[in-house]
Amino acid sequence: MSWLLRGALLVALLVLVVVGVPEPRDPTSVPGPPPPRSVDVAAVVSDDPADVGASNWSSLLGHAAESPLGARVSGAPAPLRLIRPQRLRAERPAGLGVELRGQARTPQVVTLTGPAGAVDSLTIGAAEVGAFLLQPRSEGAAVWELATETGRTASEGGWVEPARALRILVLSGPPTSEARLAIRALEEAGEEVDGWIHLGRDLWVGRGREPGPLPADPEELAGFDLIAVFPGVPMTTEFRDGLETAVTERGRGLLLAGGAGADPGFLSWFASSEEPVRPGEETSVEGETLEWILPPEIPPLPAVEVTSGFRAGPEGAQESEFTPPLSLITRGRGRIGLLHLTESWRWRMEADAVEGHRRFWRGMAEWISGGVVADPLLESMGSDHRTGEPIRIQLISRGGAGDDDERSTPEQVRVTPPDPALEEEAYTIALSPPTERGSLEVQKAHFVPLVPGVYRVEALDGAGEPLELPTGILVRGPEDGALDVEGRLARLALASRGGVLTVGPDAAPPFPETAEPGHRWPWPLLLLLGLLALAGGEWTVRRLSGRP
Amino acid sequence: MPSPSQRPSTSGIDDTRARLEGFLQAGRRRWRQRTLLRGAVGAGALGAAAILVLGSMHLAGILPAALQPAARWVPLILALAVLGGTAIRVFRSAPSLRAMALRMDEVDGGDGSSPPSTLKTESHLPLIVLDLPAEHPYAPELARRMDRRLEGRRPGALLPPTLTLEEGGLGALLPGLAALLILAGGGPNTVWSEWGVGGPPGSGPVALATLADEVVSPPVDPFQDLRLIIEPPGYTGLEATHLPAEEGVTALAGSRVRLQGGPEAGEAGVEVQLVREDRDPEPLEAVDGAGEDSSQVAPWEVQWTLSHGDRGLVVRSPGEGRERVIPLQVLTDEPPEVELLEPSRDMVLARGEGEVRFRARARDLFGVDEFHLSWVHTRGGGESFDFQEGSREWTDLERTEDGVEGTLTLDLGELGLRAGEVLHLRATASDRNVVTGPGTGVSRTRQIRVIREGDEMSVDALVGLPLDLDEDPVLSQRMLLLMTEDLLERSSELSREEVASEAGEIARQQHRLRDQVGEQVFSRATGAMQPSGAHLGSDHSHGDDDHRIAELLAHDHDPAHEDHDHDAADDEPSTEAPRGGSRYGVASIFDPSATEPDPQPAAPDHGHVHAGVRPGEAGTDVGRVTVGGLGELPVGFGELDDMGHHHDGDPILSVNQPLLAIYNAMWESARRLELVTPDASIPHQEEALEGLQALRENQRVFPRGRVSAPPVDVVDVRGTGEVDDADPAPRSPIQAVPGGDRWISAVEEAMSRLGASSTDLSAHGARLSELAIALLSDGSVSAQAGTLVAGAAELARNGNAAEAVQELSQVLRILAPLGERAETHRWPGASAGAASATFLGGARAEEGARAEVSDEAIETPPFVFATLRYESGNWDSGPLVPQNLIHALAQYTDLPVAPEGVVVDLSSREIFQYPVLYLTGHIPVRFSESESRNLKAYVERGGFVFMDDHNHDIDGAFHRTATEELARIFGEDALQPLPNDHELYRAFFHFEDGPPNTSQELSGWGDGIIHPQLQAVLMDGRIGILYSNKDYSSEWNYHAVNKRFLAVDNTRFGVNLLIYALTR
């Protein structure tokens, strides 16, 4: 018997070697159908030299040189897409969105690896968006790698801002439990809260005997990361204008809570119509029945038995029966939140959800204060940067308003390579001075990274002092995460000084969903494994029973 | 424009592509064959190498015996692993056609002139051809180039050689050497038998015998038979449960837990430690053969009684360095739930007679043990408050399915309930928990009060008119006594002039106090003021009323006291004549018996001219009283029963005899002080103090439920208060609440260790056990975290590193809920950039779209003042305080405020709706379990409680019991003095010296001492409970309309208190 088995084993091996094995899965393909693609050799060349390169690249051969390649890639979305957070702040959560595109029928496990090793994994299906909640531990460069079980990888990262408490201004009319306990929750979470509470008769807790209206100077309001407004604040047009400027132009956050969003002046920000809107009536809502849809940074209030006040916003009052408890919008550079729930304090006091209440307020403050606050603002054009390819950056700044304005003007940009050994090679790029003082200036520059990693880029004034928090630009190697043919061809075209034309996804014919090679059962392999198991079992039994 | 001949030839590029694909396919087949062959050779070589190493070790005698049984499998496993890996590589990782195309580029090589980042089309030609459209204009050219490259090429050239010479040699040499070694060792059977257990028969009896001698016992697992037996406390009637140790323990406190193991546990010397919250682990003694019942004797056992605070059990095998953490969850046996069904209301009776029926019900999960009606009989007040307590058994007791119901008819006559006394009754039940209890449950307290004649007048005298505070306050008698005693102590160190000066100052103060007393006596008699320095009944220079009083006093001559007074005079040789008044007069009015309340007030003798009114008798018409120069004021609240007495015909009935006695004692005291004999003044001071206390006892009537507090007309009051000196201070920040962050790095480190190394998992498990113990011992961290880490330790020890990491990631979510974690979201419109998307249905406004700015304020809910009702004591002793503070808040601020307060039960969930709670009382306060739990939860969640001792006694009944209760609920040191520069004193008005003194303190009410500080229970730096024994409840317990009589509003501090509570 044993010889029979051994013989069968050898035969099976022979069959495998000679006949071959099933077609394996193509490691360069993505799950589901690969995107359609086409190549137009030398057909498309960009007119903009900045698209193809500058400086040393200008010496490259022109259009008539040997095989310049123009690539036309489809606009079909990349199978694995990362949605990077607006800002990365140490010790603060930031949601890293993940989207799996295509028509994969089975959900995929996506694993995230952070600076400290494997972080977590997530199972998402096609057309779903998952989110990893990152919480960088310290300031500096940070890169997160993402990998699917099929081997597709992607990475995202940037420069993590240093940890610090949020500066929050809470404005309230007559003191309420909502305002008081919101302040307490934020303070318990470690934030710096300045509470201005109006007691009437020109008396304010936090401002003392401060006569007159609230400050309308956006600069003063911009001293806070978040301004939370509760009902009853004596509102003026100037103050509201100052608030809007602080939000839209300075990137600060505004939270309308406790029913303050019922003010028509505020409601218009959430309404698409130019008609004056009327706030919804205050009603009661059961805490257990609330349906939350939130970005990952904001943990919802726990589903507990509590009855709370609820004032629907314009869309809830006018369009549908359902209004989510919280509306969030971006407005200009900043973010605005409208909390329809007017009595979140009941979670804390009545349902003993102290921790949940604290997390909710902290998360809300973090998200709403996460707008674009840098001034000057330094940003890179494009999202997929590779070594050897120029990175275009632009600096948006406002020049000084006049001679008396001491606001520094950015005059140069310093680029620091990621490798500590190369830090000495940090170089600066001089910027052209703003043409008009007080106006919004956009200055452009570019540099060519040589090594992969997070480049630290910061704007400097004339004295070489940094003006704002640095920006981190993630640069990958030429082959990282570019295993698909389209990406490879696009890079190849760029490197050969050709151009890349991206066409919309509609232009590409739908790719039929077919079973990929390698998906059929590997019968020869199973046969071999079965024979191996039989042989091993026979051998074991024979040995244990004492037979030779 | 290209000519037709230059147009791409479709067949040309297609043919080239087909050739190319065929070429690449062939290359791929070769790749598989070569990979399989290399794998087979590698497997053989590796297995042979393992045989060589292990065999050499065996021959050299350095192969540990314990490893021998496993060693025989090592070569086979290694070979199979290599074969398996090769198979996986062949079937899953074979290069695609495109990869082969790239490989073709690599083999062909570039021209070397371009930098690495510059890619040439030529060098990527195969890749391009694979995907090139047939109609592409450059297709023919590229096809030609490709054809040229394919000419004469062999697919095998794309691949490295199958086996190098060195690899082939090694692949042959190693198995050969292994075969030699096996043959040298006596052939396969001998080697097998020597390495393994149970060799084949052919190896012979000698080999077997040798084998038997050399066989090493397999390692025993001391934890293999661990099991738990949980014996609930006997009173529960529950049966013991048996559990595997892995499941942990969830049991009632008081349960007997027995951890049993097999003999191997005893042999291994397994140690057990009990992890308790916030304490170091305690070792538990193991008992061999434990168990009283011989049939249940276990070879090894540890047992102990589960109690609150037990969080885990660490079982450790010192020999092997292994340990296991067993989490414990202790359940609490709730006390019985008791309801008093009858009577449903408190009662106020005219006389302490009649029968009252009581009916109550008690329920408990494990049965009710004792059930009775307990009573407290209180009388008096202040420092001389007295009470008795006891209990009555039910006359009819019926056991129901879920508890017991009792009925009792109480004869009030038997209890000797007198006028002014109060009977507090409640049903009390205890459960059968004799282990950690018994737990006692109480019902709501019902009070039966017997109304006392004169209550109404006394009540109104307290609540009708606020007392104004003087900048130079009149010191209390107790304060004067303390000052005199202090002077006596220091007199030896002072010159006579200094003693005389200080004694004179005390005498001056004594006169001022005496004037106040005289004012009371005199006003009640005639409505006129008594001049300072006069002695009642002795100064004949006064008007007719004084003469009449003197006449009256002459009739009330008490020889006994006369003797006493003479004695006092004899003790003190007079160096100068008393200032006015006859000593006879003093003696004549002193009637010590009058200072004691008459337990059975006799019917007044209208025909006899008698001095004053005894306590308990009304002195004026109920409903009106004449006070000072204010004329008649309305007095009396509620209904008057038939016990009221009227003495309209007697013009001197309103003289207060005890007050007269006090007045004269003070006169004597001052006189002795002026004579620089402070020691001689002390007996008189004590006499006066005693009289004051007795008087206070009679005057302290708790106007329970009889004072109507009309709603405050908020609109009318709004803004009438002066706020020129108000300057609300900014809020001070509070400390951040620490979370589980301090453990995060430890957990993350453990995760990274587990992820980085799959070996030495037992060591990882041990470290995780230590972490679990530390987490379980930390009372501030959820026990679930420790339990999960313990589970992860177990998983790691069992070799499941991946599952252990998963478990630890759960711990991270508990410790840092906002930490790194993953979630799947379904975001509407997620195709847009998430960070800039409108998440929740709010549409982006068009630029410039703006509604008109409205100045209409959004309504905010009004502040509602809540008074706490608790089951013991008299919670409603300050019925006008809420209205007064509501009035003050409306007066000084624009806050929306409800015109009336509410009363909420401390045991109800309703309290959590109110930001401020007010609690006061005179008599002992004992919180039930539900009240205690609620009070603690309310404060911990951010509520503010103002707790005021209505007696302001330094060690009075309320103060003593209330502070005891706070210590019990919040901890011994929780109640701390509040610094006088606390922001509470700047929250609205500024009180630079801390809490304002009350007239009750300054006038000698209570203990007669000014309390310099308030006390507080702080929560994260904020006041949770503000405790006062300054008696603000008396200070503010007046009708707000009377505030107009005050020079300075004494409720201003109340505004501070409320503003602090509402804004911090």
What would you note in describing this structure?
The complex is a heterodimer of chains A (548) and B (1064). Chain A has helices spanning 2-19, 49-52, 177-188, 218-221, 237-248, 264-270, 314-318, 345-349, 354-368, 485-495, 523-544; strands spanning 37-40, 70-74, 80-83, 94-100, 108-114, 117-124, 129-134, 140-148, 153-160, 167-172, 192-200, 203-205, 226-229, 253-256, 282-286, 307-311, 326-331, 334-339, 377-380, 385-386, 391-398, 412-416, 427-430, 440-447, 453-460, 471-476, 500-503. With 548 residues, chain A is an alpha+beta fold. Chain A folds into four domains: 2-22 and 520-544; 80-160, Immunoglobulin-like; 167-368, Rossmann fold, CATH 3.40.50; 377-472, Sandwich (Immunoglobulin-like), CATH 2.60.40. Chain A has a seven-stranded mixed β-sheet, sandwiched between helices. In chain A, strands 20-26-25-22-23 form a five-stranded mixed β-sheet, with no helix packed on it. The longest helix of chain A is centred in the C-terminal third of the chain and has 22 residues, at 523-544. Chain B folds into six domains: 4-184; 227-331, Immunoglobulin-like (Sandwich), CATH 2.60.40; 337-451, Immunoglobulins (Immunoglobulin-like); 463-597 and 609-699, no CATH class; 741-815; 866-1063, Rossmann fold. In chain B, strands 25-24-26-27-30-29-28 form a seven-stranded mixed β-sheet. In chain B, strands 12, 14, 15, 18, 19 and 20 form a six-stranded mixed β-sheet that branches. In chain B, strand 7 (286-290) and strand 8 (298-305) form a beta hairpin. The two termini of chain B are 82 Å apart. Residues 1-10, 110-122, 197-216, 290-295, 454-466, 523-654, 699-706 and 818-857 of chain B have low confidence and may be disordered. Classes of the chains: A alpha+beta (548), B alpha+beta (1064). The interface between A and B is large, with 153 and 126 residues.
